[in-house]
DUF3907 family protein
Amino acid sequence: MKEAKCERQRHEGKIPNEMGHSIVRAQTQKTGEFLSMVVNTVNDYLNQTTLESLQAELPTEKGYCCDVLSTLRRMTVFCEGGAEACRRLLMQEPFQESRAEKTLYNVYHQCIEEFFMPKKDTWCENSRASYTGVSAIEFYHAVPASLEQLLLPLSAAFLKMREELAHYEASGSSMAPIR
C-alpha cells in the first residue's frame, strides 16, 4: 500500500524520479558548459577589440559599433550569471530539479532569446539560417570581418542550444514561467 502511495505521488510529480533528475541534471550541466564557452569566447574578443580597432577594420557608424559592443557585453553578463547558477545547482546535494528547471527557463529567455533579439536591435535573426547553413544573425549595417567571425560559430551554437532548451521546455517538464 505504501508503494502504491509513493508511485501515485511520483506520478503526480510530488516525488521526483531518478531518471528525471538525471535528465535535468545533464541538461543543466550541458547548458552551464555552453554558457561558459560563450563567456570565454566573447570575453576574448572584447578584451582585444576597441571601438577604434573596429572602425579601422571597416569604417562603420560609431554609434552602431558602440551598440554592438554594448550588446556583446550585456550578453556576456547574462551568460555569466546563467553559468554560475548552473554551476551552483550542480554542486548542491540533493539536486534541486525545480530550481534547475527555473534556471534553464531563465537561461532560455535571458541568454538564448536575447542573443537572437538583442535589446538594442543591433542585429536580427535570419529565420532561414537553420535551413541554409548561413549565419543566423543579420546585421543592420556592415560590420568588420572579425565580428562576423565571432558571431558565425556562436550563432550555430546558440541555435543548437535553443533547440535543446525549447525541446526540454516543451517535453512535459513542470517548468512554470517566472514572472
Remarks:
- The first strand starts at residue 123 and ends at 125.
- The two ends are 40 Å apart (CA to CA).
